[in-house]
C-alpha cells in the first residue's frame, strides 16, 4: 500500500492556487504527475499525493516544477474565487474512482494524440529531407553534365588545333620539296651551259684569241622556307601596369595563394580549370553573399565549399555557410559550421565579438529547431555575455525560457 502524503502546504489568491509537496527524500519526474480539472496526483513510490480539488482549474495553463526536494504546483482557477478548503469533501468512493478513471483516460488520449502528431511531423521532415536530397542530386548531376560537356568541347578544340597544325606542317614540307626541286633543276641547267661553253673557250685559245674576262658564275642563296614562330607571354595576374602597381603587396598575395594551392593539392583537375579570380577565397565569399541575398542558398553553399577548400582557416566562411544551412534546414551541418567558426575565433578579442555572437545565435537556433531547447538557451546566454545590450537576442532567449518552462514535466 502506498503511503499518503499529508504534510503538504497550500496557498491561494482569487485566481491562482499554489501547492507545495515534499518528496520525502525520493525522486519524481514528469511521468509521475497527473493533473486534470478536478484531480491532482503525484506518485513517487512508496509515497502518494492525491487531491480531489474543491473547484475546477485550467489544466492547460497550470504548471509543476520539480527541484530542491519538493514539487511546486501553480494552478489557475477557472472561476475566480476564494476556496474554503483545498479538497472536495462531499465525494464518495464511487465518485472518486470515476474521477480517477476519467483522468487516466484523458492522459492516455493526450499521449496518443502527441504520438500521432510527432509521427506526422517526422514524416513531414523525412519527406522534406528526401526532396532536398533529390534536388541536391539533380544539381550535382547537372553540374557533372556541364563539366563533361566542357571537357568534350576542349577535346574537340584541341583536335581541331592538331589537325590545323598537321595541315600547316604538310604545306611546309610540300613547299620545301618544291624549292629543292627548283634548285636541282637550276643546277642541272648550269652544268649543261658550262659543258656547252667549254669547247668554245678552247677554240679561242687555239686561234690565239685572248679572253679578256673570265665568266663568273653567280651563286644565288636558297629561298627561305616559310613557317610559324610561336611566341608566348607570361600572364600577369594583376591588371595594373608595373609602374603603377604595389609590387611588394602583390608578391605577398601571390605567395599566399601559392601556399594555399600547395596545401590543398591543386593537381586536382577541377581546381586547375578554375579562373584566376575563382581561386581567391575572398572573391568566392563575396559571391556566396550575393547568392545568399538572392535566395539561391544551394549555389551559395557551393561557392563557400570551394572557398573553404582553398583556405579552411577563415571563420567567416564557416559562419556564412551555417546561415545557408539554416535556410536549407540542414540543422546538423549548421551546428558543425558554427562550432568550427567558434574554434577559429580563438582567442576571443573585441574585434571578433560580433562574429562570435552570430555563431552562438545560429548554433542556438539550430538546436531549438531540433527541439534541443536547453542547449539552444545556453548558446543564446553565451551570446548575451558577449553583447549584453542586444535586445533581439534577449527577446529570443526569453521566448526559449518560456518554451522550456511550459514543457516542464507533469504539465498536462
Account of the 3D structure:
With 412 residues, the protein is of the alpha+beta class. Among the domains are: 3-90, Sandwich (Immunoglobulin-like); 313-406, Alpha Horseshoe (Serine Threonine Protein Phosphatase 5, Tetratricopeptide repeat), CATH 1.25.40. It has 10 helices and 8 strands. It has helices at residues 93-206, 247-264, 269-272, 281-293, 297-310, 315-328, 331-344, 353-369, 373-386, 391-406, and strands at residues 3-4, 9-12, 16-22, 33-35, 39-44, 47-52, 63-67, 70-76. The strands form 2 sheets. It has a 4-stranded mixed β-sheet, with helices on one face. A 4-stranded antiparallel β-sheet has the order 2-3-8-7, with no helix packed on it. The chain is elongated, with a radius of gyration of 45 Å.
Strand content: 5-15%
Helix percent reads 55-70%
Number of DSSP E strands: 8
Q: How confident overall, as mean pLDDT?
A: 82
The ordered H/E elements are EEEEEEEEHHHHHHHHHH
- How far apart lie the N and C ends? 26 Å
Give the overall shape, derived from the CA principal axes.
Answer: elongated
Q: Could you name the ranges where pLDDT drops below 50 across 5 or more consecutive residues?
A: 209-215
> What is the CATH architecture annotation of the domain at 313-406?
Alpha Horseshoe
Question: SS-based structural class?
Answer: alpha+beta
Keywords: Cell projection, Coiled coil, Cytoplasm, Neurogenesis, Nucleus, Repeat, TPR repeat
GO biological process, one term: determination of left/right symmetry
TPR repeats: 357-390
GO molecular function, one term: nuclear estrogen receptor binding
Amino acid at each position: 500500500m502506498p503511503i499518503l502524503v499529508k504534510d503538504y502546504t497550500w496557498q491561494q489568491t482569487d485566481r491562482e492556487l499554489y501547492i507545495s509537496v515534499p518528496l520525502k527524500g525520493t525522486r519524481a519526474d514528469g511521468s509521475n504527475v497527473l493533473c486534470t480539472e478536478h484531480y491532482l496526483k503525484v506518485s513517487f513510490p512508496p509515497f502518494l499525493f492525491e487531491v480531489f480539488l474543491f473547484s475546477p482549474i485550467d489544466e492547460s495553463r497550470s504548471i509543476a516544477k520539480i527541484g530542491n526536494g519538493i514539487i511546486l504546483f501553480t494552478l489557475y482557477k477557472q472561476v475566480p474565487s476564494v476556496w474554503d478548503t483545498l479538497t472536495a469533501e462531499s465525494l464518495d468512493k464511487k465518485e472518486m474512482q470515476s474521477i480517477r478513471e476519467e483522468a487516466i483516460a484523458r492522459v492516455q488520449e493526450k499521449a496518443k494524440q502527441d504520438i500521432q502528431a510527432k509521427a506526422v511531423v517526422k514524416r513531414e521532415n523525412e519527406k522534406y529531407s528526401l526532396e532536398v536530397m533529390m534536388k541536391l542530386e539533380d544539381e550535382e548531376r547537372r553540374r557533372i553534365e556541364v563539366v563533361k560537356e566542357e571537357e568534350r568541347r576542349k577535346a574537340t578544340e584541341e583536335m581541331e588545333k592538331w589537325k590545323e597544325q598537321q595541315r600547316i606542317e604538310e604545306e611546309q614540307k610540300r613547299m620545301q620539296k618544291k624549292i629543292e626541286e627548283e634548285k636541282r633543276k637550276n643546277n642541272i641547267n648550269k652544268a649543261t651551259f658550262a659543258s656547252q661553253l667549254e669547247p668554245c673557250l678552247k677554240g679561242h685559245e687555239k686561234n690565239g684569241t685572248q679572253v679578256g674576262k673570265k665568266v663568273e658564275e653567280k651563286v644565288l642563296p636558297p629561298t627561305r622556307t616559310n613557317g610559324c614562330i610561336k611566341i608566348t607571354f607570361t600572364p600577369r595576374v594583376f591588371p595594373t601596369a608595373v609602374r603603377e602597381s604595389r609590387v611588394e603587396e602583390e608578391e605577398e598575395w601571390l605567395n599566399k595563394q601559392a601556399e594555399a594551392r600547395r596545401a590543398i593539392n591543386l593537381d586536382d583537375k577541377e581546381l586547375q580549370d578554375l579562373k584566376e579570380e575563382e581561386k581567391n577565397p575572398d572573391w568566392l565569399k563575396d559571391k556566396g553573399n550575393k547568392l545568399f541575398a538572392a535566395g539561391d542558398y544551394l549555389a551559395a553553399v557551393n561557392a563557400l565549399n570551394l572557398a573553404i577548400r582553398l583556405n579552411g582557416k577563415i571563420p567567416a566562411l564557416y559562419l556564412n555557410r551555417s546561415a545557408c544551412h539554416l535556410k536549407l534546414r540542414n540543422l546538423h551541418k549548421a551546428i558543425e559550421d558554427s562550432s568550427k567558426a567558434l574554434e577559429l575565433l580563438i582567442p576571443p578579442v573585441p574585434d571578433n565579438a560580433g562574429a562570435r555572437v552570430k555563431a552562438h545565435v545560429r548554433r542556438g537556433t539550430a538546436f531549438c529547431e531540433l527541439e534541443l531547447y536547453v542547449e539552444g538557451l545556453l548558446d543564446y546566454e553565451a551570446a548575451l555575455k558577449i553583447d549584453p545590450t542586444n535586445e533581439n537576442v534577449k527577446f529570443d532567449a526569453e521566448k526559449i525560457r518560456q518554451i522550456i518552462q511550459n514543457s516542464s514535466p507533469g504539465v498536462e
